[in-house]
Design goal:
This protein has a 6-stranded mixed β-sheet, covered by helices on one side. 33% of the residues lie in helices and 25% in strands. It is of the alpha/beta class. The chain is built from 8 helices and 14 strands. It is globular. The longest helix has 15 residues.
């Protein structure tokens, strides 16, 4: 199996992500931050179709393009029940459900914390994971609805995946996350990792995707020893001005 993945910036700091099953040509969008940009990227890629729209959660910067993409392409919109708070949804999926994109099987995993119904989607066969606003490069989502304990448990679920899993998150927050990580971790290797991130952003290059191995090594929310330390770090990050 093979997936073609197309990442592109949109809105102020979102990423749009298009995923194509190479065997069949079936195409999915991960969330819908900007319908016009997504349609333009499909055309630029020469992929010519949109079969699925996979929402991770209900926030408008992830669902704002649902209706327009449905109208333009007839795609099936799949996601957690909470999406109906903000946008159209055709099929509800929950923890453990699978979604077929051509011959690619994507498994949904519940990751409450950022929102209560947040889902992530992973192709285990391809070591690709689309994690919305749960896990970021050197960061994690703010706790808008869930508790620190819920988010800690969600991150533990993701941390159990193989090291080589590529993590496709939905925002370019990595430079700010790196500055916070440096306030907690003064290892030379952490400094070198952060400097590489700063240099990439200075060149206007994306820092997404990352890998689970990298995040296990450097992400302060994955290196926390327990839920209490995670909660303290998440609260500190909310107030961090560095």
């Amino acid at each position: 199996m093979a997936l073609n993945i197309r990442l592109f910036p949109c809105l102020s700091d979102n990423y749009g992500i298009l995923v194509r099953d190479a065997a069949t040509g079936a195409v999915a969008a991960i969330d819908a931050p900007d319908a016009d940009r997504i349609l333009a990227e499909i055309e630029a890629a020469g992929w010519g179709r949109l079969d699925l729209l996979l929402n991770t959660h209900w926030h408008p910067d992830h669902t704002g393009g649902n209706a327009a993409l449905k109208a333009a392409t007839g795609c099936e919109i799949v996601g957690p029940e909470e999406v109906r708070r903000a946008a159209p949804l055709d099929r509800v999926v929950a923890d453990g459900d699978t979604v077929d994109l051509g011959r690619t099987v994507l498994q949904a995993t519940a990751t409450p914390g950022h929102t209560l119904g947040h889902l992530v989607y992973r192709s285990a066969a391809d070591d690709e994971a689309f994690v919305g606003d749960t896990l970021f490069a050197l960061g994690c989502g703010r706790l808008f609805e869930g508790t620190a304990e819920q988010m800690w448990d969600s991150l533990r679920r993701l941390a159990a995946w193989p090291d080589q899993t590529r993590i496709w998150c939905a925002h370019e927050y990595t430079a700010a996350n790196a500055r916070f990580a440096l306030s907690l971790d003064d290892r030379p290797e952490m400094r070198a990792h952060a400097e590489a991130i700063f240099a990439a952003r200075a060149r206007n290059e994306p820092t997404v995707p990352t890998t689970l191995a990298v995040e296990r090594r450097f992400n302060p929310f994955l290196t926390a020893r327990d839920a209490a330390e995670f909660a303290a770090r998440r609260a500190a990050k909310d107030d961090f001005a560095g």
